[in-house]
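Handoff note, outgoing to incoming analyst
You'll be picking up this chain. Sequence as last confirmed:
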Amino acid sequence: MADSAKAGSTLAEAGSNSQEADAEQALSDSTLGTHVEPLSADEEAAFALLRTKARGGSKADQLRYADSLAVRFIRKGRFDSALVYRDKAAALEPSEGRLFEAGEAAYFAYSVAANPQKQAALAAKAQDRYNAVLKKNPERLDAKTHLALTYVSGPTPMQGIALLRQVIAKDPKNQEALYQLGILSMQSAQYDKAVARFQELLKIYPKDTRARFYLGLAYKELGQNDKARQELELVRQTDTDPAVQATVRDYLAELKTN
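Most recent structure output, in case you need it:
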């Protein structure tokens, strides 16, 4: 009960009906440019109606309409607005699942925010929600992994790396943690470590084309061009995403000249 009360208090500002519209507008303004799809007039009207319904009625009604708004905003790529209603639901019912949903909304809003100050603010929101989840369930590795990623690009990257290593220690086959450790090795130009991480990941998940792509790039950076071509060619053959295809073609063309 104490944990639930504390988590509810942490999110109290989002649970105030009188502040939801202002909170949503403030977050939308803070991440201007991250909304990938504009709303039509009909959609704006539908959202306005749902907002009104989410502010009144029984707890069950408020939860239902808050969930509906959050899902609709997520489908539109409006994670900042989704966060307002995920937070509302978590304030009304501070369960592990709802706190995690709030953390995810904050995390994805943080991931697409362009302004560094706003990104830092959203990272702090995600950290707050994920830590609330981990107080309830320290074994929630998906929460710990995304929590780690909010730290690695901030002022305390080693805190994030330590969390990722905790995940791997608990679950040596954790796909996302292994992948992110490989990416961090790439970002720090530790290409030999990146190769080891991605090779380890591909032994467990041979169809992970993200890992194979970066394994190819790591080989390229190490000057092992034959291995780089081999891995990138496999990505070209298996990943049908047009953007990935174009990028792989560019790298393969570059490797031909070397």
